[in-house]
C-alpha cells in the first residue's frame, strides 16, 4: 500500500487582495486569532501523517521559514521569565519528527508551475498539496480524510465542495459520476470557468493527494492565456491515463484568500477559542444589537 509522507505548500503568491497588509508580510502569515494560516495548514498535514513539508516560496517569504525554525532569542526570554506555557507553545510549532524543506519559485507562473518546482523533492511517490489560504476544519482533519480515501482507492484525490453558480470563476470546477454521496469519479475539471461555461457547481477546495504521474502531465502542458501553468489542466490530462476522484469532505471551508472568507474564519475561530469564546461572544452580540460597529 502506498503511503503519503510528503506535502507541498505553494506559498509564493503575492496576496494582492490583502494589500497593503501583505506588502511586507506573506498572506500565509495572516493570523486567524493567534495562529497564522500556514500553521493551521501544517497542523492539518501533520495530523494526516505527513513527515516532510515542502514549501514553494518566493521573494519576501523568508518569514515563513523563520516561523517554523527555532527562535533562540524568544525561547531564552520566555525561559528566563518563567513563561513555560508560552515556551512550550513556541517550541511545539513544528513537531521534531517533521522536516521542513524550502524551494524557490522564481516567478508566480501558476500552481502547476509551483508543483514542478517541488518535483525533485517529491520524487516518485504520492504526495499532498495544501493551499494555506483555504482553511479547512473537519473531524478528523480533512487531509486525513483524503489520505484514507486515497489509501482505499489507490488513486489521486481532490477535495471538493458545492459553491454558488456565480462563484465559478474562483474555483477549479469538476464534473463526473458519483459513486456515493462523497466520492465522485472525475470526468472533467476546468480552471475558473465563467458561470455559463462551468460544468457543475462543485469546486476544488485547496487540498489534493496526487500520484507522481502529475509531473509528467504538467511538463507536457502549455501555459494558459494568462501565461500560467494550471494544476487543473494537468489533472485533466491525467484523466486520459488514470482515475482521479473528487472527495466531498466532511467539514467546513473558509476561503481566506478573500477578505470576507478571512473575516468569517476569524469570527468563527474566536467564538471557539478557549480564552475568548465567552467574552467575544458577549461583545459580538452587544455589537450587533446596538449597531455601533465601526464604519
Provide key terms for this protein:
Spore Coat Polysaccharide Biosynthesis Protein SpsA, Chain A; 295 residues; two-stranded antiparallel sheet; single chain; 13 strands; 5-stranded mixed beta barrel; globular
Share of helix, binned: 25-40%
CATH H-level homologous superfamily name of the largest domain: Spore Coat Polysaccharide Biosynthesis Protein SpsA, Chain A
Strand content: 15-25%
CATH topology of the largest domain: Spore Coat Polysaccharide Biosynthesis Protein SpsA, Chain A
Overall form:
globular
* H/E series: EEEHEHHHEHHEEHEEEEHHEEHH
Which structural class matches the secondary elements?
alpha/beta
Count of helix runs: 11
Distance between the termini: 56 Å
Main β-sheet, in a few words? 5 strands, mixed, barrel
Spatial strand sequence of the major β-sheet = 8-11-9-10-12
Tell me the domain tally.
Answer: 2
Residue-averaged pLDDT: 89
Unreliable residue stretches? none
The radius of gyration over CA amounts to: 20 Å
CATH architecture grouping of the largest domain: Alpha-Beta Complex
By CATH reckoning, the class of the largest domain would read Alpha Beta
Count of β-strands: 13
Family: Belongs to the UDPGP type 2 family.
GO molecular function, one term: UTP:glucose-1-phosphate uridylyltransferase activity
EC number: 2.7.7.9
Organism: Paraburkholderia eburnea
If you had to describe this structure to a student in words, what would you say it looks like?
This protein has eleven helices and 13 strands. The protein is of the alpha/beta class. The chain folds into two domains: 6-257, Alpha-Beta Complex (Spore Coat Polysaccharide Biosynthesis Protein SpsA, Chain A), CATH 3.90.550; 258-295, no CATH class. The chain has a five-stranded mixed beta barrel with strand order 8-11-9-10-12. Helix 5 crosses helix 9 (231-238). The longest helix has 14 residues, at 259-272. The termini are far apart.
Amino acid at each position: 500500500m502506498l503511503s503519503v509522507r510528503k506535502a507541498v505548500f505553494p506559498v509564493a503568491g503575492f496576496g494582492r487582495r490583502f494589500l497593503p497588509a501583505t506588502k511586507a508580510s506573506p498572506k500565509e502569515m495572516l493570523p486567524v486569532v493567534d495562529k497564522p494560516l500556514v500553521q493551521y495548514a501544517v497542523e492539518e498535514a501533520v495530523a494526516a501523517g505527513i513527515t516532510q513539508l515542502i514549501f514553494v516560496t518566493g521573494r519576501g517569504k523568508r518569514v515563513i521559514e523563520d516561523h517554523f525554525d527555532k527562535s533562540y532569542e524568544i525561547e531564552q526570554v520566555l525561559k528566563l521569565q518563567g513563561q513555560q506555557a508560552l515556551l512550550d507553545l513556541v517550541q511545539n510549532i513544528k513537531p521534531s519528527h517533521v522536516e521542513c524543506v524550502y524551494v524557490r519559485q522564481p516567478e508566480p507562473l501558476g500552481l502547476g508551475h509551483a508543483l514542478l518546482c517541488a518535483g525533485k523533492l517529491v520524487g516518485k511517490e504520492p504526495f499532498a498539496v495544501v493551499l494555506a489560504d483555504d482553511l479547512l476544519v473537519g473531524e478528523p482533519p480533512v487531509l486525513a480524510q483524503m489520505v484514507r480515501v486515497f489509501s482505499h482507492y489507490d488513486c489521486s484525490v481532490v477535495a471538493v465542495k458545492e459553491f454558488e453558480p456565480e462563484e465559478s470563476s474562483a474555483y477549479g470546477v469538476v464534473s463526473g459520476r458519483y459513486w456515493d454521496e462523497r466520492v465522485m469519479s472525475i470526468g472533467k475539471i476546468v480552471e475558473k470557468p465563467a458561470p455559463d461555461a462551468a460544468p457543475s457547481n462543485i469546486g476544488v477546495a485547496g487540498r489534493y493527494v496526487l500520484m507522481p504521474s502529475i509531473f509528467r502531465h504538467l511538463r507536457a502542458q502549455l501555459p494558459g492565456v494568462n501565461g500560467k501553468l494550471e494544476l487543473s489542466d494537468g489533472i485533466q490530462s491525467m484523466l486520459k491515463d488514470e482515475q482521479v476522484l473528487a472527495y466531498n469532505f466532511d467539514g467546513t471551508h473558509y476561503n481566506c484568500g478573500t477578505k470576507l472568507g478571512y473575516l468569517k474564519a476569524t469570527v468563527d475561530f474566536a467564538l471557539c477559542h478557549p480564552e475568548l469564546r465567552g467574552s467575544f461572544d458577549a461583545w459580538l452580540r452587544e455589537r450587533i444589537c446596538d449597531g455601533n460597529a465601526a464604519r
